[in-house]
Amino acid sequence: MPTDSFFHQLFGSIADGGRVLIDRQLRGLARQPGRAVTDLCHALLSQRGEASGAALAREVLLAYNDLEPAGRIAFFQHLVDEFGPEPEAIASAAHAYQEEPSTNSLIALARVVEAPRQELFRRLNMAPGGTAALVAMRGMLLEQIAEHPTWRAIDADLLHLFRSWFNRGFLLLERIDWHTPAVVLEKLIHYEAVHAIDGWDDLRRRLAQDRRCFAFFHPALPEEPLIFVEVALVRGVSDRVQPLLDRAAEIIDPAEADTAVFYSISDCQPGLRGISFGNFLIKQVAAELQAELPNLKTFATLSPVPGFRAWLETAPSLEPLRSELIQRLEDEAPASLPDDQELAGRLLPLCAAYLVRGRRDGQLLDPVARFHLRNGARLERINWAADLSPQGLAGSAGIMVNYLYRLDQVERNHEDFVNKGRVVSSRRVDGLVRSLPADMPVVLEDA
Amino acid sequence: MPTDSFFHQLFGSIADGGRVLIDRQLRGLARQPGRAVTDLCHALLSQRGEASGAALAREVLLAYNDLEPAGRIAFFQHLVDEFGPEPEAIASAAHAYQEEPSTNSLIALARVVEAPRQELFRRLNMAPGGTAALVAMRGMLLEQIAEHPTWRAIDADLLHLFRSWFNRGFLLLERIDWHTPAVVLEKLIHYEAVHAIDGWDDLRRRLAQDRRCFAFFHPALPEEPLIFVEVALVRGVSDRVQPLLDRAAEIIDPAEADTAVFYSISDCQPGLRGISFGNFLIKQVAAELQAELPNLKTFATLSPVPGFRAWLETAPSLEPLRSELIQRLEDEAPASLPDDQELAGRLLPLCAAYLVRGRRDGQLLDPVARFHLRNGARLERINWAADLSPQGLAGSAGIMVNYLYRLDQVERNHEDFVNKGRVVSSRRVDGLVRSLPADMPVVLEDA
Amino acid sequence: MPTDSFFHQLFGSIADGGRVLIDRQLRGLARQPGRAVTDLCHALLSQRGEASGAALAREVLLAYNDLEPAGRIAFFQHLVDEFGPEPEAIASAAHAYQEEPSTNSLIALARVVEAPRQELFRRLNMAPGGTAALVAMRGMLLEQIAEHPTWRAIDADLLHLFRSWFNRGFLLLERIDWHTPAVVLEKLIHYEAVHAIDGWDDLRRRLAQDRRCFAFFHPALPEEPLIFVEVALVRGVSDRVQPLLDRAAEIIDPAEADTAVFYSISDCQPGLRGISFGNFLIKQVAAELQAELPNLKTFATLSPVPGFRAWLETAPSLEPLRSELIQRLEDEAPASLPDDQELAGRLLPLCAAYLVRGRRDGQLLDPVARFHLRNGARLERINWAADLSPQGLAGSAGIMVNYLYRLDQVERNHEDFVNKGRVVSSRRVDGLVRSLPADMPVVLEDA
Amino acid sequence: MPTDSFFHQLFGSIADGGRVLIDRQLRGLARQPGRAVTDLCHALLSQRGEASGAALAREVLLAYNDLEPAGRIAFFQHLVDEFGPEPEAIASAAHAYQEEPSTNSLIALARVVEAPRQELFRRLNMAPGGTAALVAMRGMLLEQIAEHPTWRAIDADLLHLFRSWFNRGFLLLERIDWHTPAVVLEKLIHYEAVHAIDGWDDLRRRLAQDRRCFAFFHPALPEEPLIFVEVALVRGVSDRVQPLLDRAAEIIDPAEADTAVFYSISDCQPGLRGISFGNFLIKQVAAELQAELPNLKTFATLSPVPGFRAWLETAPSLEPLRSELIQRLEDEAPASLPDDQELAGRLLPLCAAYLVRGRRDGQLLDPVARFHLRNGARLERINWAADLSPQGLAGSAGIMVNYLYRLDQVERNHEDFVNKGRVVSSRRVDGLVRSLPADMPVVLEDA
Q1: Across the interface, which of A183, A200, A204 has its CB nearest the CB of D179?
Q2: What are C299-317's pLDDT values in tens digits?
Q3: What's the pLDDT tens digit per position in C180-210?
Q4: I want to staple A381 with a disulfide (CB 3.0 to 4.6 A). Which of A402, B110, C420, D413 is the partner?
Q5: Treating both helix axes as pointing N-terminal to C-terminal, what angle do C116-124 and C130-144 enclose, rounded to 10 degrees?
Q6: Which of B181, B199, B204 sits opposite C179 (nearest CB)?
Q7: What pLDDT, in 10s, does the model give residues A27-41?
Q8: Between the CA of residue A26 and those of A8, A38, A53, C373, what are the distances in Å?
Q9: Rounded Cα gap, residues B169 and A54, in angstroms
Q10: Residue A149 confidence (pLDDT)
Q11: Chain D contact for C26, CB < 8 A?
C-alpha cells in the first residue's frame, strides 16, 4: 500500500518558488508571531492550494506545531480576523434573499455566511494526520477560549465540521482486550476518568474474561479511541464498585453472569468536546453483549453522583441538618460507613431528592443523572457506601447509583424526560423521595 | 466485531408507540405518495430521533427505498418545502447581524441559514449503509433535477455534506489487481467509461504485471470504488491506445519500463458528481509508482479529445475546409488512416488550435484538456490515428493527446493556467498551432 | 513485513566460492542432464546448506525449474540412486537392534532407514515458495511414475512429508464467495472436476446467497485451495443436478432452506494425491453451516455413480438384459428419460445392487460410494434422470445418488463399514436391491 | 470464519457409544493412573479415529490435561510400552530388505520402523490447539527425561515431527513493537532470558524507534513467539550493555545509526528444544534491517561469555594466577572495574584464550561462541567491564563479546568452523591470545 512518507517526499518539497516563500515567511516568525503560519493558510486557500493541497496543508501543520504559545494565540486571532465571512457580502446576500427568498438566493446566502475558515480546515484535513491535528488544535483552543471570547467563532466552525466528520455512521465499534495493541491499551490507562487504572496489572484484570471494554474509533484516527466504556459481567446488579475494581477478584465464567454493569465511561479527546458519543456507545455495547451472551438479562450502570456532596454542603434549604451530616461524613472512618445504617437512612433520601428534584434553570443538577436519563435510562437504585475511595467520598458521599437500560423502554423514557422533564425512576427511589418531610423544599432552583 | 444485523434486530423494532405510528404512516402511503417517509423524517429530527437515531434512520431509508417514482418525486418536493430554513428566522438573524456583526450574531445567523435538511441527512447517515444510501439518493436526484429546479436546494445541501465527508483526508488509495475481490473487479467492468472492458479476460490483461490500477475508497463505502485509473507501464510514451488494450499484447517486466501511461480514468459514483477526485488520484498514483519503480522517468496520459470532431463539424470559422475534412474522415477506412499523412498534416494543427485556443466564455472548450491542464499537466503531444475504435473516431477523429505530469512543475503550471489562463504546451504543439494560416480565427469564443 | 525478495537479494548471491561452483555446475548441464541440480542438492545437504540453507535451496529450485524433460527424468533418477539410505548401514543397525532392541538401537535404526532425500526435501522447503515447488515436483513425478517404478521411493518420501505437513491441524477452512480474490476464484473454474464451471457468470451464480463454497488452504500455499466443496441450500433433498446448476435459477433466502446439498467436491493439487481432505471438509462444512443456519435439518450429497454404466456394459452376469438396456440408453433422447419410468424401474435396482454389492477384491466397485460410506454417510436415495449432461449419461447412466450425513451417526456407520464391510443404506435402497430376481448374482467379485 | 467452538460442540460429543466408553475409562482413572488417556489413544489410532479424528483427539488432550503427575508419568510409560514399533515386524522387514534391498522392501521397512506413536501424535495434532498441546507435552517430558531414559524414544518421535512441522519454510518473521498485542508483549517479558525486562516501562524503551525486535511465529501457534531477538540501532559497535538497557537513554533517529547490535536472543518454547531457529533469525533480521535502513553498515552482537568465570575458577592449569584473579574480582566494587586497566590486561587475554582454544571433546567450551561461530560470525572484539550486572559479573566476569556478521562471509566462516574447527577471529583478538605466555597451556581439553 501507498506510503504516505514517500508521497510527501515527492510532493512535500512544493515547487521551488513556494519553498522560498515559505522560508522567508518562517524567518519572519520572530517578528510577528503566528504570521508565517497565517500566510501559509492564505496560500492554501488560494490557487496554489488546489494544485499542491496535501503538501501545502502539511507545511501549515508543521509550522503550526512549531509555534510557541504566543504564536499560537496570534494565529488563532488571525483565524478570527482574516478568515471570517465578509459582513458586506452577508448584508448584500441577506438583502437579496429577503427580496426574493429563492433557491438561488438561499444558496448564495449560505455560501457567504460560511466562514472561509471552514474551507481552510477542510484543506488542512488533506494533510497526512490532518484530522488528528485539527482535533488537537481545537483541544488547545478550548483550553484558552474563556479568555478569548472571539475564538468562539473558530470553535463554532470546528465543531460544525467535527459533528459532520464524526457522525455516528463513520464510527467503528471495537472491542478492547488483551489482544489489542499496547499503543491503544496505554491510552486507556491515560484517559480513564472515573476509576483510575493503576498500571498494566490493573488493566489486565479489567480486560479479563468477565469484563468487557468497547471503544469507538474513527478511520482517520487509527489506534486513537474516542470514547470507551468498561463493563463487568456479574450476577445481580452491583451495589458497590470496589469489588469490581479489585485486582484479585475471582474471575467468573461470562456464561454464568446475568447482568452487565457499566461502571466507567470516559471520553478521550478534549478536541471533540461537545460531540456526544456516550449515548450511542452504551446502547450498541448493550446490543453486542446481548448478542454474544443471551444469558445477560439486565443492563445497568454503577455511576457516581458527582455533585451530591457539594450540593449538600451548600444548599441553604438544608440547614441546620446539613452541618451535622457533613460533620459525620468527615468524622467517620470509611471502613465503618457500610454499617452506619442510621446515616444511610438520612442521606439516601436527600440524595434521591437531589437526583430527582434538584434543578437549576429547569435542568437537573447532577450531570451524570442528566446524561443517563436523557439517554432513556431509569434511575433504579441508590446504593449506600458504594464507593469508599477518597474520590468517591469527596464527590458522592460514597453513594453510587444504578441506572437501568431497558432497550425497549429507552425511547419512551427519553421522550418523557426531554419533553416533559419527567425523571423515570423506580418505586424504591420514589419511596426514598417521599420519605422526606413534606415541608422540605427539595426543588432547589436557586441552589 | 459488532454485527449490525443484531444491533438492528434489537433496536430496529423501535418502541411500541413508534412502531404503531410508523405503520399508520406507511398505510397512508397510497393516498399521499412520499408522505409517510417525510413524516418519518420529521420524527427523526425530533426528540425521538435522539434516542433511537440509528434505528429510526434505518426505517426512513427502508421506506424511501420502497418508494415508487411518484413517491420519490413527492418526497424530494417535501424536502424542499418542509426542511428548508425559516425565511423569518433568517431575516431576523440577518438583521441582528447587521446591527451588530459579532461572533454570536454570526453563529446565530449561520445556524438559521443552514437548512434542517442537513441535520436530517446527518442523522440518516447513522443508519447502517446510510452513506451509500445518501449517495444513491443524490444520484437519483440529479437524474431529474433539470425538470425540478427547486431541488437544487437539496442538491446544494447534499453536495456540501459530501464535500466534507469525502474530503481527501478520509480517502484510501488502494491498488486493484488480480488479488482484489471479484465484487470490486466487476465494478471496474461496469464503471469503465473511457475504453470499455470486454469481460473478465480483458480485465485480467489490464491487471497484468505491466499494468497498474488504483482506486480511491471511502471507509464508509467498502468494496465501492469512487474513482479509478488504469496505467500501462511501457517503454516510451504511447502514441496509440489499441496496442495498450490488446488482450494478446506481450507482458513486459515492469522493471524495464521507463514510462507510466495513464490511459483511462473513470468516476464511479453518479451521486458524487461535482466532487473532484481525479487530480489527487493521478498525482498520488504517480508518486506511488515512482516509489515502487524508480526506473519510471515519465508520467503521461494518453487521452481522448472528446469535443474535437463535434467542434470541427460545427465551427463556422472553419468553412469551407471543414466540409472536406469531415467528408474524408467519413469516407476513409479506419485501417488506412495511420498512413494518410496528408490528412494528418491538415487535422493535427486544427486539433492543436482547438485544444490551445478554443474557448467559450473564456474557458477551454475541451473538457479533458481543462481537467489535465488545471491539474498542472503540460499538453505534450498530439497523436494521429491513435484511437481507431468507433468511439475514438466519432469523438476525437481518432486523435489522442499525451498530457505530461512532471511533479516538480504541476504547481507552477496550475497557477499559470488558473491565474493567467495560459495553456502550458510543448514546442511541438506550439509549432502545430503556429503552422496554421496567420489569418485563421482560432480563438472561437462563439464556437 | 520482511520482503522475501530482499532477503534473497542479500543472501541469494551466496559467497563467492559457492557462486563459482554453481556456475560451473550449471555450465555442465548440457553434457549431463540434471547433474548440476543434483550437485546443488548434495551441497544443500552438506555443511554449506547449514549456513546458506534458504539461499541454496532457492538455487536448487530455480535450476530444477529450468530443467528440460530429459533433465528432470535424470534428476529424479539421481534422487533414487544418490539420496537413498545406505544398505550396509541399515543392515548393521538392523542387526544391532535385533541383538538388543533398546531405545538407542531403535532410534539409530530409524535414522539410517530414513532416506537422506527426506532431509533434502525439508531443506528445499526453506526456500521461498519451497512448499509449492515440492508439491509441484511430486505432481510431475506422479505423471511419469508408472514408467519408472523405482521413483516410488521418492514418492514414498514426499508423501510421508506431505502427510505430516498437511496435517488437518494445519489447514484453514475458508469460505469462498464473491468477496474472494479473483486469483482464487479462477482456480475454482480451473479445478472444478465434477460439474464444469462455464466462466465467471456461471461461477457468480454458484456463489450467490443460496449457495456455499468452502475450501481448505495451507498457510504455506496462500491463494491456493487444496480442495473445495460446493453446496446448494434448498428445500428438500435435490434429486436432479441441472436445476442446481441453472444460472437463471431463482435465488432463495438461505433462512428458508432446510437442506444443504453437497453437489460437487474437487481436489485441486495433483501433487497431494493420496492425502485425503474430503472427509474432514464435508464434516466441518456441515458443522459450519449448521452453526450459521440452524434452519438446516438435512445434509446430503448429490453424487454421480461414475462406474455404473461401464459396469453395466461389461458385467458378464447381466446378460442378456445388459445389451437391451444399453441399447435403450443409447437410443433414447435425454429429454425423454425422466418420463421413461419403465426403464427407471429396470435400471435403478441394478444400480442399487451395483452400489451395495458390487465389489472387487472385497472392496466396493464404485469410488464415490467408497468415499462417502467410508466417511460414515448413509446411502439414502438413488435418483433417476438426475444428471442429463453428456458426462452424466456416459458415466452414471444419468443416475445420481444422495448420501446422507447425519453427524451423530457417522462414527457408527464408519465403523460398521470399515470393520464389517456393511453398507449402511436406507430402506428404500434396500427395497430396490431386494426387488431383483433372487437368482441374480449381484455380488460380482469378478466384475 | 469457522468457529472451532461450534465444530466441537457438534462433533465433540462423539457418538453415544463412544461417550459411554470414555466415561467408563475416565472413571477407571483413579485405579490406574493414565490408563484412560492411553485407552483413548488406542481408540484414536483405530477405525474410530478415522471417522471422528478431531473430536477424539480433543478428548485425549482434555483427559491428558487433567492428569495428575503420577498419571502423566504412567501415560508416558504407556507411550513407550504400547506405541512403539513391533520388534518382530522390524526383524522380518529388515531381513526381507537384506535379502532384496528393493524400493518396496525399503518402504516396508521404513513403515515398521516408525513407531505408531508418530501417527498418534499426528492425529492428536488435528484437535484444536493440538500443536500447542504437543509442544507443551514435550516440554513436560523433557523436564523429567533424565530420570526416565526410555522416554527418549518418545522424545525422538516428537523431535522428528517438530523438525518437520517447524521447518523454516513454515515460520513467519514478524516485527514486534508497541503496536503488537499485549498478549504477545507480556510473553517477551516472560521469556527474555539474557537481560531481564523489568516490566512494561522497560519493555516500552526496548521497542522505541531506535530499537528493533523480531520474532518467528508458526501459523498453528498464533500469538506465541518461538524465538525473538532484540536489536539496538546505534552509532559504532557497542562495547557495554548497560547503556543499551538504560530506560532513560536518549532515543536517536534510526536514520542516523550505522550499526545494528543484537544484544539479546531468547528461545521461548521449552518443548521445541533442539530445533535451532537462531541462525535463521539473526540472518533474516539483518537482511530486513539492511533493506529498511541502508545506512546500517555493521551487524554485530553484544554477547555474554557465560562459561568464562566458572572456567576461570576451576581450570587447574591456571594456578596460581587463578586464585588471585578471582579474589580481585570478588573484592573490587563493580563501579571501579571499568578503570582497572591492570585487571583488564590480565583477564582479557585469558578470556580470548578461553573463547578460541578452550575445548572439551574437541568442541568449544563456550556455548555462545559455539552458536555464533557455527552461524558463520567472526569473533571481533572482547570488551572489558561491559556488563556490570550481578549476572554479568557472575557468569562472564563482566566481559562481553562482539560477534560480527558479515553476510557475504558467513558461509565461508561457517565451513571453516565446521569442517576445520577454525575459529574466525579479528587480529585484535588474535593479538590477545598471542600475548599470553608461550608455555601456558590454553587448550584445556580436560578443563
Answers
A1: A183
A2: 999 999 998 999 888 876 7
A3: 999 999 999 999 988 889 999 999 999 999 9
A4: A402
A5: 130
A6: B181
A7: 554 468 789 999 999
A8: 20, 11, 19, 81
A9: 9
A10: 93
A11: no
- Cα within 13 Å of Cα(D156), Cβ side: 20
* Residue C181 touches partner B, C-beta closer than 8 Å: yes
**Mean pLDDT on C407-411:** 86
| CA proximity to B176, closest of B245, B106, B247, B224 | B224
Interface check for A182 against chain D (CB to CB < 8 A): the answer is: yes
Tell me: pLDDT of D265 over 90. yes
**Interface subset of A 327-386, CB within 8 angstroms of B:** 374-376
SS3 content of chain C, % helix, strand, coil (to 5): 55, 10, 30
The helix/strand/coil state of A382 is strand
CA distance D389 to chain C (A): 33
Answer whether C355's CB lies under 8 Å from C372's CB.
no
Phi and psi at residue A444, to the nearest 5°: -110, 65
Give me the pLDDT at residue D288, please: 94
- Whether C80 has a pLDDT exceeding 70, the answer reads yes
Dist CA A46 CA A58 (whole Å) = 15
Say if residues D338 and D385 touch (Cβ distance below 8 Å).
Answer: yes
Cβ distance A280 to B110 less than 8 Å, yes or no, reads no
Contact assessment for residue A124 and residue A136, using Cβ atoms and an 8 Å cutoff: no
Q: What is the pLDDT of residue A235?
A: 96
Number of residues written out for chain A: 447
**B279 interface with A at CB cutoff 8 Å:** yes
Pick from D266, D262, D228: nearest CA to D244: D262
In the block, residue with C-alpha cell 459514483: B269
HSE-CB of B110 using CA atoms within 13 angstroms: 24
Region for A342 from its dihedrals, namely left if φ exceeds 0, alpha if ψ lies in -120 to 50, beta otherwise: alpha
Residue D11 and residue C150: Cβ atoms within 8 Å?
no
Give the Cα separation of C248 and C258 in Å (integer): 21
Asked if D429 contacts D379 with a C-beta cutoff of 8 angstroms, the reply is yes
> Rounded to whole angstroms, how far apart are CA atoms A395 and D378?
66
Residue D368 neighbours by CB distance under 10 Å = 22
Mean pLDDT, all residues of chain D = 88
At B371-418, the pLDDT tens digits run 999 989 999 999 999 999 999 999 999 999 999 999 888 888 988 888
All three cell numbers of C390 = 453428456
For chain B, what percentages of helix, strand and coil (3-state, to nearest 5) are there? 60, 10, 30
Q: Using CB atoms, which chains have 3+ pairs under 8 A with B?
A: A, C
pLDDT above 60: residue D4: no
- What mean pLDDT is predicted for residues C113-129? 93
CA distance C389 to chain D (A): 33
Nearest-Cα distance to chain D for A367, in Å, is 35
Overall average pLDDT of the B434-440 stretch: 77
Give the residue-averaged pLDDT of B268-291. Answer: 92
**Which residue has cell 444504578?**
A402
> What's this model's pTM, rounded to 2 decimal places?
0.90
Give the best residue of A11, A111, A167, A297 to mutate against chain B (max B CB count within 10 A). A167
| Cell numbers representing residue C402 in the block | 444422495
- Let me know: does B366 contact B312? Beta carbons within 8 Å: no
Cell of D272: 521445541
User: Which range is least confidently modeled, B113-122, B254-263, D52-61?
Assistant: D52-61
Find the angle CA(D121)-CA(D122)-CA(D126) to the nearest 5 degrees.
110
**What beta strand segments (E) does C254-366 contain?**
259-267, 298-301, 303-304, 359-360, 363-364
| pLDDT, tens digit, 9 for 90 and up, residues D199-248 | 999 999 999 999 999 999 999 999 999 999 999 999 999 999 999 999 99
CB-nearest partner of C200 from B179, B183, B200: B200
Report yes or no on chains A and C touching (3+ CB pairs under 8 A): no
